[in-house]
Amino acid sequence: MNPAKATLLILAISGSVALAAGRPAIDPIRPAATARLMRMLNRSAILDLVRERGPIARAEISRILDISQSTVMRIIDDLLEENLVCWSGDLEASGGRP
Known about the structure:
Structural class: mainly alpha
Radius of gyration: 19 Å
Strand content: 5-15%
Number of helices: 4
Number of strands: 2
Low-confidence stretches: 1-23
Helix content: 40-55%
Largest sheet: 2 strands, antiparallel
Strand order of the largest sheet: 1-2
Distance between the termini: 50 Å
């Protein structure tokens, strides 16, 4: 991989883009993704996973998508309120407390 491209890729992930010397550079003051955008992306990923896998536990969603359990729970609660997901019954326990 071209080192210049690798640097630009890392910069694009870590912050917003500004123009410097004719190429993209980081603006350290503005984050690359706002909390609202991240929430929308996480919500979309959760909905896609539920569509693909069918009934799935929140802990498994968290593990598969590498999203914190508290974030998954908040998003699932919102989806339940909007009737976009529903409880499907008991899933077989895979661990945890009895």
